[in-house]
Amino acid sequence: MASIGRATTLLASGTLVSRLLGFGRQWLLLQAIGGTGLITDAFQTANSAPNTIYAIISQGVLNAVLIPQLVRAAKHRDGGQAYINKLITLGMVVFGVLTAIATALSPQLMTLFGVRPGVMDLAIAFALWSMPQVFFYGLYSLLGEVLNARNSFGPFTWAPVLNNIISIISLVLFLVMFGVQPVHTVGDWPALKIFILAGGSTLGIVAQALVLFAFWRRIGLRFRFDFGWRGMELRTVGKAAGWTFAMLVCTQLAGIFQTFVANTASGPHRAGPQGIATTWLIFMLPFSIIAVSVVTAYFTRMSEHARDGDFESFRTDYSSAVRQIVLLISICAAVLIVTSFSFSRVFTTDYQPFGVVLIGFVIGLVPSVVGFVTLRALYSLGDTRSPFIYTLIQSAIVVLGLVACLHLEPDFRAPGIAITVSFAGTVQTALSMVFLRRRLHGLHLGGVFRSIVQGFLGSLVATVLGLIALYGVNQLGGHGGFSVATALSAIVSMVIVGAVMLAAYILVLRGLRTPELMDALAGLRRRLARSQRAE
């Protein structure tokens, strides 16, 4: 457990720095091109398209089959060196072809994503500079998963820090050259302006991928192109990847339709694709720092348990991961709901539509992280069929909900999208746990349900006290709106309210004698005692 703790701490710290820089990047972006309107939504659509394309083709395939395959390859005489070189070479060829096709189809893709005719030419120009990201997203995932499989978790987590730094530099350059202009016209975009905005974003992805090569020597690897793909057991991989590919097609097609619906709501003072992207970034802060960090550290170990047939240890690790995540995420969800308008105000003066969308996403935060743990558990068992089945159901619910959103007034479409995603994700999580329980012939769910109930009770008390604290904070400005008066006052209010809620949450869990909290407090006391003895 000590190694899991160290790995989780390393991953969480890298993710935290990356996310904070990501917030800085998003704040600069919204100052440069505004939070709402056709142009900002056109850029968001174009810049997010490469990630969607990459996800459809390969992201889930890599996550589902790569680490289990690499764990097996590590038992080869050469420690998996030859297999890894073949895999990276094959990946580069595939991603290169995909990038070329996506770039050529940029106009058609922007139409598919629902970009409005008035900004179509500008969106296509953004997309042409953004599409090379497909190749480098793929390369980053390949190189990072190789490092993770060798228990070298740090580089994969810290590489996005470099990406965000480069993106921030490009946005600062954009602001210096073109100024703060929340309102732009289509004719106000010369080629240099487009290049700095979209090209700077792509350059960050390039650096994020290539920097991982620098860490290979530390794990005893050396990359060389190897086109001898025979003997890679691609048929076995392909069988597993086939279900995952189908699953990703379902989810990403639903995602494309979601962007299309969001673009129908695009306009001044309304949350469109940029509003959804910004609130999703806030939503992903606790998800990435806590869920991804904990699960990434556990995933390799669960894969090893599955390989060795040690399913009792597998169940124990799954239960431990879920219980830790639920208790940590529950308070984060409560704080985000109470401070949703303040958090949104940090980014834009159009905080009201953004805040409502954020609440819609956050109500599904706890189920989503449990579903994430369960998905990775199924992947470590080599089961990609079950995730396809329950994700197909989830995607169908999303599509039906999005169709219903098209019948809402434009002001309510983005919140409707968020609530739809949360509801569908909750159903998906429930189904995923049913599939995992059947696969393992039982799970250690008693502790999981206890953690969920205790986390809910603690969050409920914290929410009530948080709302009282927010009311008090809002009186500081004399006009009843200190928490959203300025970006700085919003940050101050979040710190005050968050501290009150966290203290209340810890006290409730301590009163309930929650094992995970008691273990954490005992560990803290031991560290303090050691430090005092050292002095």
TrEMBL record:
GO BP terms: lipid translocation; peptidoglycan biosynthetic process; regulation of cell shape
UniProt topology in membrane: Multi-pass membrane protein
GO molecular function, one term: lipid-linked peptidoglycan transporter activity
Keywords: Cell membrane, Cell shape, Membrane, Peptidoglycan synthesis, Transmembrane, Transmembrane helix
Chain coiled-coil ranges: none
UniProt subcellular location: Cell membrane
Transmembrane residue ranges: 83-102, 122-140, 161-180, 192-216, 237-260, 280-300, 321-343, 355-375, 387-408, 414-436, 448-472, 484-508
A single Gene Ontology CC term: plasma membrane
UniProt keyword Iron-sulfur present: no
Top-rank taxon, per record: Bacteria
Matching PANTHER family: LIPID II FLIPPASE MURJ
Protein's name in the database: Murein biosynthesis integral membrane protein MurJ
Organism: Gryllotalpicola protaetiae
Origin organism lineage: Bacteria, Bacillati, Actinomycetota, Actinomycetes, Micrococcales
